[in-house]
Amino acid sequence: xxxxxxxxxxxxxxxxxxxxxxxxxxxxxxxxxxxxxxxxxxxxxxxxxxxxxxxxxxxxxxxxxxxxxxxxxxxxxxxxxxxxxxxxxxxxxxxxxxxxxxxxxxxxxxxxxxxxxxxxxxxxxxxxxxxxxxxxxxxxxxxxxxxxxxxxxxxxxxxxxxxxxxxxxxxxxxxxxxxxxxxxxxxxxxxxxxxxxxxxxxxxxxxxxxxxxxxxxxxxxxxxxxxxxxxxxxxxxxxxxxxxxxxxxxxxxxxxxxxxxxxxx
Length: 265
Prior knowledge:
Elements: E1 4-17, E2 20-33, E3 37-41, H1 48-56, E4 63-68, E5 71-72, E6 80-84, H2 95-100, H3 112-125, H4 141-153, E7 159-163, H5 171-187, E8 191-195, H6 199-205, E9 208-212, E10 219-224, H7 239-255
Parallel strand pairs: 3-8, 3-9, 6-7, 7-8
Antiparallel strand pairs: 1-2, 1-4, 4-5, 9-10
């Protein structure tokens, strides 16, 4: 059996448009080990969100295969949790009831009391203890995103897909949530795939950063991030971090066609 929990093998995919097929993925190869946290970056429109839908089983590739835990993905899977840029919380439900929503769909074997306790524990973990009975409109954007993160984890998924979950937040709130994310990852182990446009976010949160080429996307560059980080924002202000960001920026320029591939970073 493969040592990787997520495997994307030679995936090709195109969207059908009025003017003909629009290729978005071209022989994409991605492998994520169990417990790993991979960030995927690349030019806008290169197929990053398509990748997440394939992993979640929300769509099938035209060619190639997607595997989770040694099983080929053929449809939506209850073992995948997802969080998006827009939290999409239901205003007529309290924050607690919003977080518990997946438990009404996914069979977990937990009793009603256990389900509520699970949701309360997650809310406390992200700093929302005491806000369980509030409505979404009573919370700030950052607080709503924290609740959305809890909702994506409440059914204990094997895989957590984060599609630009912090992109709409201000810089200070975003950085605060990065640190919360590390805390959650430590307390709630999962295998993660993060889609982001923020290179600082990618090197702060991920074990590995994958740069996709311009459309149709392939895996252009892979950067492994050392595990000897402190987990504080100080990690972003070291010479090593500056060098990683410089390399990634150059790779994005190559993907955008603004720099030749052979040019030094």
